[in-house]
Amino acid sequence: MKNSFSETIHSVRHLTSCAVAAVALAAGSTGLMAQERESVTIGYVISKSGPNAGGADMTVTPNYELWVQEVNAAGGLTLPDGSQLPIEVIAYDDRSSAEEVVRGIERLATQDEVDFILPPWGTGFNLAAAPLLARFGYPHLAGAAVTDKATEFVERWDTSFWFMGGSADYVSAFTDVLVAERDAGRINNSIAMVSVADGFGIDLVKAARPTFEEAGFEIVYDQSFPPETSDFATIIGEASNSEADTFVAFSYPPHTFALTKQSTVVGFNPPVYYLGVGAAFPIFPGVAGTNVEGVMSLGGIDPNNALNAAYRAQHEELIGRAPDYWGSVLIYASLQMLEQSIERVGLDRAAVAEELSTGTFSTVLGEETRLENNQLRAINWVGQWQNGEFVAVSPEGGNGLAAVQLPKPDWE
Amino acid sequence: MLEHVVNGLVLGGTYALVAMGLTIQYGIARIMNLSFGDTIIAACFATYVLFSVFAINPILALLIVGPTGYVFNLLIYRFIMKPLVARAPDEGALEVDSILVTFGLLFVIQGVLLVMFGGGYTSYSFLNSPVSMLGTVVAGNRLVALVLSLTFGAVLVGVLYRTRWGMILRAVATAPQSAPLFGIDTNRAARTAFAVGGALAATGGGVVSMFQTFTATAGVVFTMKALIVVILGGKGSVPGAIVAGLLLGLVETFVAAYIDPGLTLAAVYTVFLVLLLVRPNGLFGKA
Fold first, then answer.
1. CB pairs under 8 A between A and B
2. How far is A281 from chain B (nearest CA, A)?
3. What mean pLDDT is reported for chain A?
4. Which CATH number fits domain A37-165+305-369: 3.10.100.10, 3.90.180.10, 3.40.50.2300, 3.50.90.10?
5. ipTM of the shown complex
6. Largest Cα–Cα distance in chain A?
């Protein structure tokens, strides 16, 4: 008896909700729905815990937060009709697991039905996210992902956008510096190279071996180490014994810091000293506790660029710490491009993707930032610590780049 | 050759220092503490804060961090472990229960650290100065780890084998069922042992923070390493932890120097496997 009563109630309710839906649908066609929308929801899945949290917390998450704060403080995202909607954020922790990335994105797309999804941190996670985002029709602004296959990926998922270049780009720009130094007779022909046996290290070293050899260099010490490695006494010792004038380490932050500390202790100071992720962190000089002048790595900024300086000041003020000198600004620029696309074409995701692909934007990277074949190419590939800042360099300098200063001075 | 021995011993000193606390907690208090590494990380952060905010020398900070670790672990034992110990029908059940509880505790400590410090890398530089040892230049802070682990090891062995109190702890470790028959308060002994282990973990964390980059979520790495050392050395054996720690350091260094740095982990697990096949109770373990 009770059951049939509740069933009746239920069906009445069901009828009511059908009626409400019908009214809403009818109203929707007159545009009432669009006006009732109170916010734009933006979702992301990011590593807040686990081994990837350190990287995500440096390069990606602060920029998402900074951008949302700034946009909301200015009244929200502007739509083509001039109206503004605040951003509402839904963020999940992927606990540094690719399965969680997939689950989180599926949830954001199907259950939370967010308007836009921002990408996770890391090359592997972005590759896991790419097919999903393409399937659900979300533009994918892959920020913290270094890949040589971006061109292929763009063909496969035409709403994916790649903002950090590929291993080959970074290595060949660095090789140009090495060739210029060698031709000037300042360094010998030998390179000592170590790499972490994990995503970033494997990718970079794979690109580096043929590039160095083609340029006529001899890799006299070439070893990889497990990501768990914490002591580099032996590796630095062997690299030092190899008498190479160039030391290259494709490392993650803990290794980058430990390598620097060990090199300082034993006074290993080759003319060219190049490190991986972490050397472009603002905390790097403090961590090393020494003079890091001349240390080279990926990325770098143009200290004379006013837009970038303003961005860095803003980041420090709102987040409470400085952004890194490599990926941060690229991530932030990708968000600015998303914001401007929405302002031009509205919240239709396909139209936003089209606009990202073809439009020209005013970002922290420059007044006229545009993508080439869905890829950002205006990236600083090689950087060096000069006068307490990690600046973008090239052999000769110019065009927003400083001239590289080698040989590297002493640690002290 | 000599240089690799020195480097290996210095690296092994860190392993031994980190593992000693776990071997005492596991061997005497019979608590398999999976949150051990997170205690270490908490101590890393504490030392870091004391150094960077209050400008306290990290070596002096050990005098604050160590006793804090003692009190913290005493409270954990009193309020979380005690009920488990009281209701566990036998040793095996206690082990399983303690694994489950400390697994949860791991996430609590980690979560608190994440809220307080975020997920980023933390590192600072202290005593990263060259010290010449037998002709090999090593980092001062790593040498501190080696010296401290040997000192603590010597003190602990002295206390365990030369004092009445040490005898009580050993009695509880060897025969927890029979110890009360001799008027030993096993609960008190286990509580003290657990807290001493916690103090050692905290001190180890303080030292490790001087040279290693840490994140709020890196605790499990330390737990794993410490666990390997403890099992290699024989559970509850302090000399075992020191010998096994130094052995692992030497193996890693020699493999990195003469074979391939990529095989250090493989070498560690090979040694682990072989030793377990030959001596299932570890180097110094009793059958």
1. 118
2. 10
3. 88
4. 3.40.50.2300
5. 0.82
6. 96
